[in-house]
Predict the 3D structure of the following.
Amino acid sequence: MVFFLFVPVLFWGLSYIAIKVGLRYLTPVELISARLLLAAPTLYIILKIKKIPIDWRSDKLLYLLSGAVIFLHFFVMAAGMETVSATDTSWILTTAPIFIALLSWFFLKEPFGWMPTVGLIVAMTGVLLLMSDGDFSRFGWLKSVNDWLVFSSNITWAVYTIFARIITRRHNSMAATFIMVMVPTILIAPWVMIRSGFARLMVMPFEGWVAVVFLGIFCLAMAFWLWTEGLSRHTAAKVGVYLYVEPLITTLGAMVLLNEKLTVVTLIGAAAIFAGVYLSSLEKKQRVST
């Protein structure tokens, strides 16, 4: 059913907007901790309903590393988004599949031919357009820490994906995700909440709570469950099409809910990123079809 694929993409597209709202009231690490504390029990309930066993005794080191990378990924993205728009963030992170392919080539010896290389160059041109606001003559954008933090979250997501790919070959993907989420939830989130998070949550207005609940329960727990169900019902090619919709949802949502402006530079940069990601996927499709 289309439902299992479109709804997670809708949640993920709107998640960038929810992060911007949450950052009005919480620091990045507080926002992530609150998100994890909501996501972990929700995932546990889903596992119990579906009667999926949880095996945390094997691959402990890999789970620990994956959980640390998940937290790092959420942190660098949220920290960058303190100044970077939701629209730019969503398009920059659209390049993540290219970096996943690049790291898979480096660590797992998977092919990375000339077409993905061309796609990487085209996509990076689009990313740099967004980061520089279309003016390469001004070098101040090179010092924009937040832009580079958002961009680096492509790398952290690629590293997490490599770890997750190894783990899910040995364990149920839903159970594995729960364990990886539980690592930072147990080791980091309680300390953050005791130190400052609970105090900020208690005075946070309604819109902040909506953002946190949406990020934790819907964008992390529910979206992953529905996406996993969708993967079991559709081909990889059909699934991939839905991911291209995600930044479009963010762009439209940010215009309506955050009053972000859609500029010519944004359109050109987004088009270059879209083209680059598409080009990088062509060679893989050709290998699958032959």
Remarks:
- The first helix runs from residue 3 to 22.
- Residues 43 and 222 are 8 Å apart (CA to CA).
- The radius of gyration is 19 Å.
- Residues 3-289 form one domain.
